Amino acid sequence: FKQNEHTIIKLCKKFARIYENEKQHSTPTDSDVLSEFFVQKITRVHKKYGGFVDMKLSKRGRYALRALVYLSLNSDKEKMTLSKIAKENDISTKYLEQIFSNLKRSGIVKSVAGINGGYLLARPSTDISVEDVLNAVEGDYKIEDEEISENCMVKGISKALQRLVIDRINEETGKVIKNVTLRKLADEYSNTDRDADEMYYI
Question: Full-prediction pTM beyond 0.70?
Fold first, then answer.
């Protein structure tokens, strides 16, 4: 999200200027319609450029984790090509290329060139956490801190929201994604669903 923050702010400010200009020449009813219109516009911009939106794990993060769990289950036997990982997980190869480029830069995967080349985990699956993966492909996963306007007369409300809600959600989210590794995800899959998937594949 951080890498697109300036783009979001610029577009939101643009929408805000247009809205304020239009509101001066509108009736109250028209103003309500305009307000809803620009809220929808800003929401679409935020979703387009954001990673986590309303604490939802984005498609990019989910695909990265799915592909890496699959890689961790199979790369001990052979190097895995990106096209095979994409096919088995029903992910666009081009999209996965972008994801793996970030993962490689972050030292999570490594590639081997040549006719028998492919991808391997760059370190043991026990040493790669969900947090590592999300930081590599998403950036900061945390809810942003509460903003307090200088003109706000009840700053304590925002401070309470920060302490009791935002800080706690970030803390608990951090505990989960730091403690869940690729190995734990792979073990969970192997112990619960792998047999069913292999029967379906046959």
Answer: no
pLDDT tens-digit readout, 152-174: 777 777 788 888 888 988 899 99
Confidence of residue 15 (pLDDT cuts 50, 70, 90): low
Please spell the DSSP secondary structure of 145-165, one letter per residue.
Answer: PPP--TT-S-HHHHHHHIIII
Write the CA distances from 94 to 58, 67, 71, 73, integer angstroms: 17, 13, 17, 22
- Please name the residue that has the structure tokens 């666009």: 92
Q: Answer whether 166's CB lies under 8 Å from 146's CB.
A: yes
Measured CA to CA, the distance from residue 198 to residue 88 in angstroms comes to 12
Per-residue pLDDT band at 147 (split at 50, 70, 90): confident
* DSSP-based helix, strand, coil % in the chain, nearest 5: 65, 5, 25
Residue 143 CB contacts under 8 Å (≥ 6 apart), including other chains? 52, 55, 166, 169, 170
What region, left, alpha or beta, does residue 50 occupy, with left being phi > 0 and alpha being psi -120 to 50 degrees? beta
